[in-house]
Specification:
The structure is a single chain. It is built from three helices and five strands; from the N terminus they run H-E-E-H-E-H-E-E. The radius of gyration is 15 Å and the shape is globular. Helix 2 runs parallel beside helix 3. Helix content is about 30%, strand content about 25%. The longest helix has 23 residues. By secondary structure, it is of the alpha+beta class. The chain starts with a helix and ends in a 9-residue tail after the last strand.
Length: about 160
């Protein structure tokens, strides 16, 4: 089953593509490696989803927000590679805006990690960091950056 078929089976579609909010680009390709700028959760309107996990945002809500960021990363990766079936996730760095006594950062960033594995299978398994922050840009709840690799095609155009 293709990655897009798995995405559809999960009832998911890619979010709208949003422009960066500063003097940077969404990703940089170096050979077969994609380096992604940090992305945060957005509403369909493009507005940031804001709050502090453990205060006015639950772990479950933040998990879903991290899942949405993972979906945005996949959309960008698929566009960069021409197909999600050529994407392999190498590393994810997840930041959680949380209270100082919050300790479940990994549970939040699992939203992104679980999505990547559910859509890409073994190619979605990755190294990861999940850390807490006192603040994040625009007040967003999570910010996630990543490193992914574009797999080569064989002579038949298959990965």
């Amino acid at each position: 089953m293709s990655a897009i078929d798995r995405l559809k089976a999960l009832g998911l579609e890619f979010p709208a593509d949003f422009s960066p909010g500063g003097n940077y680009i969404p990703f940089r390709r170096c050979g077969d490696v994609l380096y992604f700028s940090g992305q945060g959760p957005r509403m369909a309107s493009g507005d940031w989803i804001t709050g502090t996990v453990g205060e006015d945002v639950t772990v479950e809500q933040a998990y879903e927000q991290a899942r949405g960021v993972g979906l945005a990363l996949l959309a960008t990766a698929g566009n960069a590679a021409g197909s999600l079936d050529r994407i392999e996730v190498v590393k994810i760095f997840g930041m959680v805006r949380a209270r100082s006594d919050f300790a479940r950062h990994a549970d939040v960033i699992n939203g992104c990690s679980d999505l990547l594995v559910n859509v890409l299978g073994e190619r979605g398994k990755h190294a990861r960091s999940a850390v807490g922050m006192g603040s994040l840009p625009n007040g967003m709840t999570v910010e996630i950056e990543g490193i992914m690799r574009i797999l080569p095609e064989d002579e038949n155009g298959l990965v």
